[in-house]
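dumping this here before i forget
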Amino acid sequence: MDLLLWFTIAFFVIGLIILLVVSKKMRNRVRFLKSNPDVEDGEKQAKPVIWFIWAAVAWGVVSMALVVTWFSGSA
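structure:
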């Protein structure tokens, strides 16, 4: 097994663990924002949720690119 495969697996597993841990915080934050729509700093409190969504999308794209790169290199 080559180094790219191990890097791909580690990147995916570590990213998935982080995603699952942080998603619980983000769910609580979204629940709070939905239940209190008239909070003064609502936009400021929503920014971490938006950054989390962007980070999750970036992690997914990089994970897919690593898998595709490994499959095209190992063929």
